[in-house]
Amino acid sequence: MYPIVEKRVLASNIKSVKVLAPEIAEKAQAGQFVIVRVDEKGERIPLTLVDWNRSEGTISLIFLEVGVSTRKLGKLERGEAILDVAGPLGCPSEIRNYGTVCVVGGGVGIAAAYPIARALKESGNKVISIIGARTAGLLILEEEMGKVSDELYISTDDGTKGYKGFVSDVLKMLILKGYNFNLVYAIGPAVMMRAVAETTRPYKIKTIASLNSIMVDGMGMCGACRVTVGGKTKFACVDGPEFDAHQVDFGELIKRQMFFLPEEKLALEKWESRECCK
Amino acid sequence: MSAAERKIQKKSVSMPKQNPEVRIRNFNEVALGYNEEQALAEAERCLQCKNAPCIKGCPVEIDIPVFIKLIRERNFEAAIKKIKEKNSLPAICGRVCPQEEQCQKYCTLGKVGDPVSIGRLERFVADWERERGFNIPEIPASTGKAVAVIGSGPAGLTVAADLAKLGHKVVVFEALHLPGGVLMYGIPEFRLPKVIVQAEVDYIRKLGVEIRLNHLIGRTYTIPELLKRGFNAVFIGTGAGLPQFLNVPGENLSGIYSANEFLIRVNLMKAYMFPEYDTPIKVGRRVAVIGAGNVAMDAARSALRLGAEQVYIVYRRSREEMPARKEEIENAEEEGVQFCFLAAPVRFIGDDRGWVKQMECIRMELGPPDESGRRRPMPVKDSGFIVDADTVIIAIGRTPNPIIQCTTEGLAVTQWGTIVTDENGKTNIEGVYAGGDIVTGEATVISAMGAGKRAARAIHEYLTGKA
Ligand SMILES: Cc1cc2nc3c(=O)[nH]c(=O)nc-3n(C[C@H](O)[C@H](O)[C@H](O)COP(=O)(O)OP(=O)(O)OC[C@H]3O[C@@H](n4cnc5c(N)ncnc54)[C@H](O)[C@@H]3O)c2cc1C
Ligand SMILES: Cc1cc2nc3c(=O)[nH]c(=O)nc-3n(C[C@H](O)[C@H](O)[C@H](O)COP(=O)(O)OP(=O)(O)OC[C@H]3O[C@@H](n4cnc5c(N)ncnc54)[C@H](O)[C@@H]3O)c2cc1C
Ligand code: SF4
Ligand code: SF4
Ligand code: FES
């Protein structure tokens, strides 16, 4: 059991939990994730390691409530515990001094972008961050991102905060303004990462995406997470989750993410009807 | 014909099974096991051969005639004790050992009729004991030595049990959230009920073994770290869990699963009880399973139970070469699984949502035998044909889990990714041993246990300074 020692609500359906998991905290590195199973009947879901405190032995996770598993997790309060947390999983980000780096985070992907931006900053990079959300109320970690970035840009789809438009539009604007990025990181919904990749492709700026394919074990044993990168099949959980965004077949990723949609909807309806009987 | 020969019962006592029409609608165990009367009748058939050829067919050398004699005497307690001297997981082996290739293949009776059903008798006494609660043997005083076992499949569990019984402290590190390895995540409930695996695991816990779940070694800790943290020896039993794919176009379409994904969803995550359990599984009307081993049979039979209308096994060789156990092929056929031999997929075709709807196959013919002794399949020119399938399960084999090999500097590994050991499981790193599928490539439960036994002996000698 992995007790929750702190819980915060960041936006209407985005929550953050601090979990006691000393062995994972000890090893966590930027770019890695854990697999969480909330309860006995639960699914195994991947969540990024957003932060960790080695002396306290805690890890922080931030999640968007989209289906049964994330809603069940969102119901847990301080003092309650998650049944299973395994990790740290996946290959850590390759952190070194690249020069000027642009970190682009979209939606809940900002949570996953944060530790990477921080690590890049700590290794001496000039970090320009662009974060965006559908609307101002859904924007998370603005303050934290600001602290680890030399410059921070914000966009919302509806223009309620920062630039009106997508994060990829802001990126394009910065490139046109003459910023010379040595590396771009894109983390967020697959469509957003694809848009970022298409933005940087004509300029041949190396771009890395952190892929969020559907996972089951997260340890290389099932192949559910397979993605096509440079024409070859890779397992996002053990070969990634980070890959060269210009080589990723995003169309395939997006289609594969939707495969269980009707089942996920059914599960959510069943769960909600059970929950309201309580 | 002499009097002695006339008494020989040529036919073995058949084991009751669930009726096929009923069982394809549930996940309960298919083979129901002998009752006492049936077990006694089957035990009666054994000739008690002096040279006991059956023993040499058993990878852990169970004293087969003696345990059968004890069953005849209705001394079931002594019979199971006899088995457990060599095999700590008899309820499992009695169910899933390929007996026809092992102990029973060498049985003297097999020359004149059916061999003695050794596996079924083993299962009978193991079940008899479990229903009454296990006897926990006395554990000697602690030796003060600690061993880390990586992986809780049959190899790891065997090492853990044997070393705990010798007084060593044993901690098993398992990456998944449940112990048992393939027994838990791969082999379906209808062939090996999970309560049996759990009971065996509980027994091992009662021997004093600590099992720590959710620990992926190589990530949570590395092997050098385990050695630094006070473990005097390490055993690697991480198995062969990396699924292989065909590497043909369209293989990443939705609806195409590796057998491992399919079976992990169904068994480990209990997707057959979705939506009561949260993990979904989706099975279409026409399911094609590629491959013809035990894993393919398990996937095909699971797909039927999940509501598929038609399930095909597509195999590039012919019926004779199928590697699955005969008994399981028969069960699959009884249940309505169909077979398409001498065919291999070359391409998968999807619809506009990216879901598989058809596959293109080519015909194969068998050429001269290859290294494995089986006739090599060769493509027939211009023989392409289209098969409808809205779900495809790829069951063409699994290779060693690579994480340990990548994170343990200096560990000797073969070109196939298996770990190099001597006959006792010793690797090239002092104090580090390995066994099971991670050393041999995918094999059997009993061979993994045999490797575990030998490694436990070697580790004990190493720890007590006798090696
Ligand atoms: C390496 C990795 C790291 C991740 N980190 C985070 C994180 O830090 N915070 C966070 O909120 N989410 C993260 N995700 C996504 C998260 O795992 C999914 O949101 C979660 O599994 C959904 O489970 P559910 O039961 O609540 O929803 P479901 O009912 O399973 O799904 C609801 C919706 O989410 C989509 N979905 C399902 N599984 C995934 C998945 N694995 N990835 C993306 N979309 C999915 C479905 O297509 C569907 O539209 C990460 C995914 C990966 C692969
Ligand atoms: C579907 C299926 C059906 C089968 N049917 C039969 C049958 O009928 N009869 C038969 O004899 N054999 C059968 N087999 C083969 C048999 O199950 C295997 O040969 C046997 O389980 C191998 O045992 P093992 O202990 O080496 O590894 P496994 O059983 O594979 O166990 C390895 C364990 O190690 C864990 N692990 C892996 N990496 C790490 C790590 N880095 N850190 C921590 N833990 C880790 C895994 O999660 C797993 O639990 C079948 C296999 C499958 C997949
Ligand atoms: S363990 Fe397997 S091979 Fe050995 S006697 Fe039992 S069934 Fe036969
Ligand atoms: S070979 Fe067959 S008949 Fe002879 S002892 Fe063994 S089981 Fe009995
Ligand atoms: S999630 Fe199973 S292999 Fe990646």
Reconstruct the topology from this structure:
The complex is a heterodimer of chains A (278) and B (467).
Chain A: E1 2-11, E2 14-20, H1 22-27, E3 33-37, E4 45-48, E5 51-53, E6 58-64, H2 68-75, E7 81-82, E8 84-89, E9 100-106, H3 109-122, E10 126-133, H4 142-148, E11 151-156, E12 163-164, H5 167-177, E13 183-187, H6 190-200, E14 207-210, E15 226-229, E16 232-235, H7 236-239, E17 242-244, H8 250-257, H9 261-277
Chain B: H1 3-6, H2 20-23, H3 36-45, H4 53-56, H5 64-72, H6 76-84, H7 90-96, H8 118-132, E1 146-150, H9 154-165, E2 169-173, H10 182-185, H11 194-206, E3 210-212, H12 223-228, E4 233-236, E5 242-243, E6 256-258, H13 259-268, E7 286-290, H14 294-305, E8 310-314, H15 326-335, E9 338-340, E10 343-350, E11 356-369, E12 375-379, E13 385-388, E14 391-394, E15 398-399, H16 403-407, E16 432-434, H17 437-440, H18 445-463
Parallel strand pairs in B: 1-2, 1-4, 2-3, 4-16, 6-14, 7-8, 7-14, 8-9
Antiparallel strand pairs in B: 5-15, 10-11, 11-12, 11-13
Helix pairs in contact in B: 3-5, 5-6, 5-8, 6-8, 7-8, 9-18, 13-14, 14-15
Bound molecules: flavin-adenine dinucleotide (2 copies), iron/sulfur cluster (2 copies) and FE2/S2 (inorganic) cluster.
Residues 215-218, 220-225, 235, 237 of chain A line the site of FE2/S2 (inorganic) cluster.
Features:
heterodimer; A: 278 residues; alpha/beta; Elongation Factor Tu (Ef-tu), domain 3; Rossmann fold; 2 domains; 7-stranded mixed beta sheet; 5-stranded antiparallel beta sheet; 9 helices; 17 strands; globular; B: 467 residues; 5-stranded parallel beta sheet; 18 helices; 34% helix; 16% strand; disordered N terminus; binds flavin-adenine dinucleotide; binds iron/sulfur cluster; binds FE2/S2 (inorganic) cluster
